[in-house]
Amino acid sequence: MIKFDNSPDNPELKQYFELRDQKEFTANNVLYRQKIAKAQKYKCRVCGQSLVGDESLEVNHIVPEKVGGKSPCYNLELLHTSCHIHHHQLLEYYGGSKEYNKVREYFKKHNVDPSTKEGTKLMKKSFKKFDYNLN
Predict the structure, then answer these.
(1) Among 61, 104, 114, 135, which residue is least crowded by beta carbons within 10 Å?
(2) Cα separations in angstroms, 59 against 49, 64, 71, 81, 120
(3) Are the CB atoms for 90 and 50 separated by under 8 Å?
(4) What's the N-to-C CA distance of the chain in angstroms?
(5) Contact in structure between 84 and 111 (CB atoms under 8 Å)
(6) Which of 67, 119, 113 is nearest to 92 (CA)?
């Protein structure tokens, strides 16, 4: 229970609520999901909100498998289900269809293998250009 005057929105209690969320997440998830969440500081990349809560989570490949992404932890992230759906809609939009032709060209242009850590970093960099506020 949270006392009436304590809130996750209170800047003075931000660290307390972050640690509380981490503890709750660790208690309710398997080790590989804990590792992925810790790497992203227990925040959803799309909405910036905590991964702890009522909404279910999806494991997302940062570099899509269709483009050559593999499944090591450095290429995985956790997103809220709604954020995951929205992310894939934008990935198709910016990537030039479900085959992600523009994404393939992007890797070729930068001469980077999509299955490497460098490929994952390049893809994360490109996500910063996504407008997740589109309706």
Answers:
(1) 135
(2) 16, 12, 10, 9, 15
(3) no
(4) 35
(5) no
(6) 67
User: Distance between CA 74 and CA 104 in Å, rounded?
Assistant: 19
Residue recorded with tokens 């479900």: 98
Q: Is 13 left (phi over 0), alpha (psi -120 to 50) or beta?
A: alpha
Neighbours of 46 (CB within 10 A): 20
Spatial separation of the C-alpha atoms in residues 132 and 7, rounded to whole Å: 26
d(CA 90, CA 129): 11
Q: Do 87 and 79 contact (CB within 8 A), yes or no? A: yes
Name the band, by pLDDT with cuts 50, 70 and 90, for residue 4. low
Report how far residue 70's alpha carbon sits from residue 55's, in angstroms, rounded to the nearest whole number: 26
Task: Please tell me whether the overall predicted TM-score, pTM, comes out greater than 0.85 for this model.
Answer: no
Q: Take residue 36 and report the two structure tokens written for it.
A: 């992925």
Q: Tell me: the pLDDT tens digits for 99-113?
A: 899 999 999 999 999
Domain boundaries, given as residue ranges, for the chain: 11-127
Distances (CA, A) of 111 to 50, 64, 114, 118: 35, 17, 9, 10
